[in-house]
Please model this.
Amino acid sequence: MDVAEVAITVERVGTAIIGGGIAGCAVAYYLAAEGETDILLLEADELGSGSTGGSFGGVRQQFSTPLEIELSRRGLEFWRSAESVFDSPVTWHANGYLFMSGQPEIVAKLAEAAELQRKMGLDDVHVLDPEQIREVVPWIGTEGVLGGTYTPNDGRVTPTEGVAALVKAAKARGVRFREKWEVRSLERARSGWRLSGPDVIEAERVVACTGYWSTDFLRPFGLELTIRPMPLYAAITAPALAGQRVPLTIDLDTGLLIEREADGLVIAILYENNPPDYSHARMLEQFAELARVRAPSLADLRIARH
Model:
């Protein structure tokens, strides 16, 4: 024969989940917990290595729409109880969140959001004036600040610990996981879907949990999402503010961010769009400039890693 016919083995599954971050692993576990069977999760690299691995891991109720606040309520409940529910190490750091601003319209919006959070049952939120902010975090300089909102029981997690807990629980319910399996194409096939990668898989249903790759991945299906990757330049400092409360603190006017990391701090400056040619070096220069006003004791911190 001039042309060899090669039989392609097609694996068939009930549900294929694309993406092995915290979202994909949670979908896998909760589908299985609801009685779904024959679930296969596909991860292009290693579990938790994409958007999840790069996350700061902040968990907060401080949002301003009912949907976001309800999702936050459920997220807080998940992370606070995950260690006991899944019998797996998932450390919850109840460091709190502090937002502040010197712009009247932003302070007013923070107060409105706090009221909405209370109405939805999340009442541990405090609207603070500058003096009260200094009482909570004495290391903050409040020059030019008009007010802020503080949620002492929000916190921070290590997202990959959540991934590990969910994977263990999902495997116990029969979910299969496959790493290093990149989905190169997804197309309709009879009454289901065909996924092409290292092999070919046909699934009755597909769940895409592809993080900031979702825009490109789903564009062929006529979906134009607004999810996009953007570099976040941050650094970890040498030990600082020993014995002091360090909520995840954001100056909404400048983007200055400070949070606890072990006995040091994570520092960064948040932008909606990074300036041209932005870099770690430029971020550290700007942080030092801004900290001289907003957190004077941190202006000359030694940087351990970035």
Q: What stands out?
A: Confidence is low (pLDDT under 50) at residues 1-5.
